[in-house]
């Protein structure tokens, strides 16, 4: 015998009880999947929201097949924080959540969420928030940048009208940094300050599907792309190093080292003597390059 507790009635079969719950006005709020009966719509809704058996959006009052479909719905149709798995009623609620939560790397002015604290710091130090007050020192180039690392990257790229490129900068730094403040003597060539090895690919790099780098086996659609890859610092010796004894991280380019210092990741920028030595070295190099 099946018993309806709410109506105090017995039924000969479970199917008869289920039919009674479907048809009776006293059993309007029923979860048939779980076999539970609720006296109010709010009670049934709370059950769907809290039960791990249900994937229910209380804002749209809609059911989904699994948790992945429900999360996709949240992301596409609502203001959803994926890492906290929380849904907010409007954009302002999500904005305030990101702004106040210390676990999120969020720029409230640009309303952009970043994956790491370092990415956020790089954004805050970009032209979106910082003035371009570092001018290119070469005549005929009127470009300005937000940091020294950005200026050096501009020169290393070969895009400056002066014709300065990464090879020239590396050779000047090697010749000026006699005491190896920012250069690693173990990675410099022992016979003078010759250029590093430069690679160039030909059509022989075609492997039947793409142009392949023989050093790292990366594949490229065009030969120009492969040679651009080979001309990058990817396969060059990391001749630069952080001047802080407790860090000593190595870099293939001067701009990479400057970005490391500016990021304050290891704290090298806190030491005035180190900062002054680097500033003097960079200033003297820029002066010599402009002569």
Summarize the structure.
This protein is of the alpha+beta class and 291 residues long.
Q: How many strands? A: 16
Distance between the termini: 102 Å
Structural class: alpha+beta
Order of helices and strands: EEHEEHEEHEEHEEHEEHHEEHEEHH
Strand content: 5-15%
Which strand order spans the largest sheet, edge to edge or round the barrel? 1-2
**How would you characterize the largest beta sheet?**
2 strands, antiparallel
Shape: elongated
| Rg, Å, rounded | 32 Å
Number of helices: 10
* Low-pLDDT stretches: 190-194
Overall residue-averaged pLDDT value: 84
Name the helicity range.
25-40%
Structure description:
This protein is an alpha+beta fold. The chain starts with a strand and ends with a helix. About 2% of the residues have low confidence.
Task: Please outline the helices and strands.
Blueprint: E1 2-4, E2 9-11, H1 14-23, E3 29-31, E4 36-38, H2 41-50, E5 56-57, E6 62-63, H3 67-77, E7 79-81, E8 86-88, H4 91-100, E9 105-107, E10 112-114, H5 117-124, E11 134-135, E12 144-145, H6 148-156, H7 166-176, E13 211-212, E14 219-220, H8 223-231, E15 240-241, E16 250-251, H9 254-263, H10 272-290
Antiparallel strand pairs: 1-2, 3-4, 5-6, 7-8, 9-10, 11-12, 13-14, 15-16
Helix pairs in contact: 6-9, 7-10
């Amino acid at each position: 015998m099946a018993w309806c507790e709410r109506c105090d009635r017995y039924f000969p079969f479970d199917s008869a009880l289920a039919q009674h719950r479907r048809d009776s006005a006293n059993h309007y709020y029923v979860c048939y999947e779980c076999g539970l009966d609720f006296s109010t719509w709010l009670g049934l809704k709370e059950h769907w929201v809290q039960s791990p058996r249900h994937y229910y959006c209380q804002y749209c009052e809609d059911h989904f097949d699994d948790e992945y479909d429900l999360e996709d719905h949240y992301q596409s149709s609502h203001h959803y924080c994926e890492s906290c798995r929380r849904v907010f009623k409007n954009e302002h609620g999500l904005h305030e959540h990101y702004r106040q939560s210390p676990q999120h790397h969020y720029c409230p002015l640009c309303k952009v969420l970043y994956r790491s604290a370092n990415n956020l710091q790089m954004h805050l130090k970009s032209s979106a928030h910082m003035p371009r007050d570092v001018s290119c020192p070469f005549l005929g180039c009127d470009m300005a940048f937000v940091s020294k690392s950005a200026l050096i990257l501009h020169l290393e790229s070969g895009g400056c009208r002066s014709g300065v490129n990464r090879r020239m900068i590396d050779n000047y730094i090697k010749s000026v940094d006699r005491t190896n403040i920012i250069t690693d003597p173990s990675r410099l060539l022992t016979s003078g300050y010759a250029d590093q090895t430069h690679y160039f690919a030909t059509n022989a790099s075609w492997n039947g599907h793409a142009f392949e780098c023989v050093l790292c086996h990366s594949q490229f659609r065009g030969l120009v792309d492969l040679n651009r890859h080979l001309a990058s610092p990817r396969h060059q010796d990391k001749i630069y190093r952080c001047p802080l004894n407790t860090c000593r991280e190595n870099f293939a380019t001067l701009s990479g080292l400057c970005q490391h210092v500016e990021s304050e990741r290891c704290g090298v920028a806190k030491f005035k003597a180190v900062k002054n030595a680097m500033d003097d070295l960079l200033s003297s190099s820029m002066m010599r390059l402009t002569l």
